[in-house]
Amino acid sequence: MQKLKSKKTIGIKLLLATLFLVSCGTMNPFKQSQEELDAKIKLFNLGFESKAMDRCSVFIHPDFLEEFQRKSLDFQKKVTILGTTTLDMKIFKDEKPVITTSSVFETDFDKAEILIRYQLSVLPSTKVKTIIVKQKWVQFKDTWFVIPNLDSFV
User: Fold this and answer.
1) Domain spanning 2-152 has what CATH number?
2) Which pTM value belongs to this model?
């Protein structure tokens, strides 16, 4: 009887320790913000590269949405994206660069800049050209939004 009680106690302690460790890993708000930003960057760029501008518009900062919708029609007609490469990512807090030593950000940040190289063609030309675009993401009301720059493409 005594052995059964001690085994139960050890089992309960192990379960509680496991739950504590798992919950500590999910409580990092900076990691959650980074994961949200990473997911939104991927979804936005997937839609952008395939010219699904209606899907992209949910990621556009509200102050820039009208301009994006107006310019996106020209982009859809003229631009064909052939390839992309993400070159760099920088994060900022209050417009000051945040120095990171790992891929997991351990500090608060409110802006990110992603440097992307695009290979594309723009009608009426059939030549392939390469441009490098700085994609800016900002936190607005605790949500990540992109500030689009379609002028770089057309």
Assistant:
1) 3.10.450.50
2) 0.74
